[in-house]
Amino acid sequence: MEAVRSGFLHTKTFNVPEENLNGLLDDELFERYGISNSPYFEGLMACQGSRTCAFGVIENKPDAIKLANYLSERLPREEPIRMHWSGCAKGCGQHGAGDIGFVGTKMKVNGEVKLAVDVFLKGEKIDTVPLDSLHKYIEELLTRNGLS
Ligand code: SF4
Predict the structure, then answer these.
(1) 90 lines ligand 1 (CB under 6 A)
(2) Residue 108 Cβ contacting ligand 1 at under 6 Å
(3) Ligand 1 centroid, distance to 96 Cα (angstroms)
(4) Domain identity same for 134 and 72
(5) Does residue 71 sit in the same domain as residue 11?
(6) Are residues 28 and 67 in the same domain?
(7) 105 ligand 1 Cβ < 6 A
(8) pLDDT: is 42 or 128 the higher one?
(9) What is the pLDDT of residues 82-126, one digit of tens each?
(10) How many structural domains comprise the chain?
(11) What is the distance, to the nearest Å, from the Cα of residue 103 to the centroid of all Cα atoms in its chain?
């Protein structure tokens, strides 16, 4: 199985016979869009976010992809993990249904307002973390909770 992704779309292609795989990957579609078979992308879900939704607090989809790429490199795993992102508190990304959930918000750090996410673990809110330090935070969270 291969997952094809872009900033706004995440699709999966199943049951491609091994002998047809190279032919498929030569398609121009794959020049335009990235390919990933990382488990961090298999369960990844993210709503529209601020680029296309007036309610969005954070961009959301790019943030979700950045984190999944980071974890794919830093914390390789075999099993899929469900990371669900909502760009605001309306919750269209079903953050409560993920193994880890994220909700776009803002927070003050040393008097400066920063983009941030509320972080949920198995549906329970556990923290609010600035987006610019989220990668390290989630890497440590996964390791600490035996989810890596
Ligand atoms: S959760 Fe918020 S940002 Fe995401 S689609 Fe719903 S209203 Fe828009």
Answers:
(1) yes
(2) no
(3) 14
(4) yes
(5) no
(6) no
(7) no
(8) 128
(9) 999 999 999 999 999 999 999 999 999 999 999 999 999 999 999
(10) 2
(11) 12
